[in-house]
Automatic annotation (TrEMBL):
Secretion signal span: none
Pfam families, A to Z: UDPGT
Keyword Aminoacyl-tRNA synthetase: no
Provenance organism: Stylosanthes scabra
Annotated protein name in UniProt: UDP-glycosyltransferase 1
InterPro entries documented for this protein: UDP_glucos_trans (IPR002213)
Keyword terms of this UniProt record: Transferase
Amino acid sequence: MSNNPHFLVMPYPILGHMNPLLQFSHVLIKYGCRITFLISEYIQKRVKIPSDDDAGSSKIDFVALPDGLDPEDDRSDQPKVILSMRNTMPPKLHKLIEDINNGLDFENKISCILVSKNIGWALEVGNNLGIKGAFLWPASATSLASYYSIQTLIDQGIIDSQTGLPIRRQEFQLLPNSPMMDTANLPWCSLGKNFFHHMAEDTQTMKSFGGWWLCNTTCDLEPGALEISSQFLPIGPLMEATDDSNNKSSSFWQEDTTCLEWLDQQQPQSVVYVSFGSLAVMESNQFKELALALDLIDKPFLWVVRTGSNGNNAYPDEFEGSKGKIVGWCPQKKVMNHPAIACFVSHCGWNSTVEGVCGGVPFLCWPHFSDQFVNKAYICDFWKVGLEVERDHESGLVSRGEIKKKVEELVGNEEIKARSVKLKEVTLNNLVEGGRSSKNLDKFINWTKDY
Ligand code: UDX
């Protein structure tokens, strides 16, 4: 077998999984590995495939398979997508790997399959072909530890075995050295019973077939979560492990880079950056309240408003927006590291959380679903680098007054700022030569070469 492993990289087809796996592919290329990157045909038709112009991407072979659904089917129904992929894709994946390998010399054949979550069955396909498997968890190690602990939580009477919902709502500590967790915030609770079943099954498959469980985290960020299994391997912060200084883009979505020039014209630490990731959808009255809050705050803002994410972009009539810049999608990592950014109003998706930490940026947390509540607990209670917005008890909305008040409190809090800068330094140290994540990356690459 070659000294340069060939990876088949297969993310579950949503952006929050595709981007971390693409970033990790670039890391693997730096180590001399070859990458075949598998996406669904549906996604292939809808995203920008990073081209030969994008540094590093030329070394990635993109391939596609159907996900088993019709083009008009609703892909936001995740249990439906997960089930369709699992029911229809294994034989197609098996054939694809055979076809690729048949055309290659022995030393260049696919030697490892790397997946994100929801598609553990792909490791079983690899196993049947004698190919190693590993997986890259696209969220926090703590959420991975929650899935890993499903059976324990059932045995301890904390969750119901059928629905995954808490038997009773309580605060508990899932892991040592971690923030307290509300049982209602276990990551599957907001996603429905079907999702829980799929994830419980998927985790079992991973336990059977996965080698390493790579986590985009560090030993300092989530010390307790990493103790749960010796299979967990922290290799973060992933987005900092790739050298993208010459990279036009390694994202699947078209980025509006004009915001970088706009940021260049703003005062240091003056801009409120607002983004809710790739999935969260804001109700239209909440969207209006946020727009009016941004008008009220005495600071410029950069706001990512994804097309279709706000009920057809219904800005309120009285919204001026004159202090800000609104984009459909931005190069977030670069934004995070721009000196003009003062704070990050975030849904607390894990990738955004780590990117904000690496930018040394204080957070105003506005979690929407799944693991985002636990990520918020790390930000506010464990690392103490952010504050949380509170909803009005009657309307259920976060009012414009609350948003303004919390932004002002956050940007005026020197202790939070100092802790954010320190956390950035500690986190990035994991990637310097001899740092713990660097060593773990070496360990992983050596494992893939070991036959
Ligand atoms: C999903 C889940 O929602 C989240 O809870 C889980 O932790 C990971 O998977 P998503 O909602 O997309 O992810 O959020 P997040 O994890 O923050 O990922 C968003 C990614 O999009 C980040 O890497 C961010 O840099 C990128 N992004 C966001 C851009 O590149 N440009 C933007 O304008 C906004």
